[in-house]
Amino acid sequence: MADAMTEEEFLEDFGRPGYTDEELEELLNGARSSGDADLRLVIKQFQALRWICRQVLARLEEHEPRANDTQVRLAKFLVRGEGSVEDGRA
User: Fold this and answer.
1) 43 — phi, psi (to 5°)?
2) Is 36 helix (H, G, I), strand (E, B) or coil?
3) How big is the CA angle at 66 (ends 61 and 71), to the nearest 5 degrees?
4) Rounded to 5 degrees, what are φ and ψ at 65?
């Protein structure tokens, strides 16, 4: 993430749980319908990254069940909606 992001901007962008898988599918269908290839690509890339991150978190928790550093907490919030953004930011 960009280091230049302010605390206010961070909380504005990430202060709520992200899009659900269903909401992303709706956005993707809208991008397909409108012919917005750039938006479609961004959504598909995000879906792929979310899937990969879920797999990595599952393996981490399997091998390091007590891992709970800042990056892990932030990943859990962004990928699973667990915790709060303050947990991941602290």
Assistant:
1) -65, -45
2) coil
3) 75
4) -60, -20
